TrEMBL record:
Keywords: Membrane, Signal, Transmembrane, Transmembrane helix. Residues 60-208 form the Nose resistant-to-fluoxetine protein N-terminal domain. It holds the Pfam family NRF. Residues 1-26 form the signal peptide. This is Nose resistant-to-fluoxetine protein N-terminal domain-containing protein. It comes from the Eukaryota. The chain crosses the membrane at residues 226-248, 301-320, 340-358, 378-398.
Amino acid sequence: MLRQWQRTWVLQFFILSATLNGKSLADKPETFIRSGPKLTWISDVVSEKLSNFRTQSQSNELCNQQIDSYEKSLRNLTLWALQMKEASAVSTPGMLVGQRFHLGHFDECVAIRHSKLAGRYCLAHLKVSPSPAMYPGFYTEPLKTVEPPPDSNAWETLKPNSNWFRMDRTDLFMALCVPGACSRHDVEETLNVTFANVTQEHGINVKIQMHDDLCTSSLDDEPMSYASKTLLCILVILSVLCLLATLYQLSTSNAIQETPKKDTLPRRIIMSFSIARNLGKVVPETNDDHMVILDLLKASAAFGVMFGHRFACMLFYMVFNVSFFESQVKKDLPLFMPTLVVESFFIVAGFLTFQSCYEPVRKQGLKVIPLMIFNRWLRLMPSFMMLVAITALLLPYLS
Ligand SMILES: *[C@@H]1O[C@H](CO)[C@@H](O)[C@H](O)[C@H]1NC(C)=O
Ligand SMILES: *[C@@H]1O[C@H](CO)[C@@H](O)[C@H](O)[C@H]1NC(C)=O
Ligand SMILES: *[C@@H]1O[C@H](CO)[C@@H](O)[C@H](O)[C@H]1NC(C)=O
């Protein structure tokens, strides 16, 4: 019974003191809110400088006017101005694990249209490093491990590294959404001024680099160039030719094998465009079945290489977790070893090349080799050039 009482008293005392404590803390809220000393870390400095970034041009008056209008519209929460602010990146989450791209929102930025004003999306490249006075260790010797120990200085993570696969973490790509009249040059100039005294203030060197191609607005959409129009015409003509030739072949050849038609020159030219005939030629009928497995291996390795590159372009560079990837490479997991796929491709391709070269070389000697190389070149170059032309001339217009 006594113990019960004691317990109750102890509990009551506890609650009372906690209430009193809380009350006294609530009376003095400033002791609750701790504002420690200002950090001089990259993300803080970049956030501070970019969150109120306004382009200011020496020569471009229209840019300054639009910035003025942006500033005013921002104060009364006009939608387009807030979209412009929101589409810019101001913080650098994940930069210690290798997140270098801080992309804001491209679509939101270039969609902004308001009377004569449009959004311009620029990606600025910031190269950061500590000044030698700030962290001399950065310049002495490279980091040997993939991840520095948790109790080391954060600059260790950004140090040059002796592992070939470890990505450089000193590059930052920050999205800036500015009024369309401001050019790449204006933005770069303002960034240079904005970050000019960061070295003295915070001991961090920031070098700015920008590229015209990474600064676009719907205002600079140009009409299609002549080269692109010509290429488009050629592609349309070729497609129509293929279609017509295929229809021609299908209509003239019967399922029942009749005596083959005379192969006149016009007919041969038309047939070379036929899709049905060319598809049949891609998969030749071969007698040596045991080599088919090599073809299959080569095809799957080629597919792996293509998939890897596509995947890398789509996801890796922009949003992937670099540290995770690096730790997996260290464990030599086959899935993460890009060299494995590429090497299988080359080894299998080597066997297959030997197989196709051996007979001709045995019969006609080494002099056929240049001819074979030329033959291969002739086979690949037209389609490769066409691919390059499409990428350079047509893809940019697909937005
Ligand atoms: C905000 O202010 C600007 C200029 O000061 C004015 O033109 C605009 O109509 C205002 N917009 C809103 C939504 O109040
Ligand atoms: C900004 O500074 C970089 C060097 O840090 C320089 O190469 C570039 O030309 C400068 N840009 C402008 C517009 O002044
Ligand atoms: C750096 O520049 C800002 C604004 O441009 C200024 O307010 C600040 O005083 C400068 N700091 C130093 C150390 O010069």
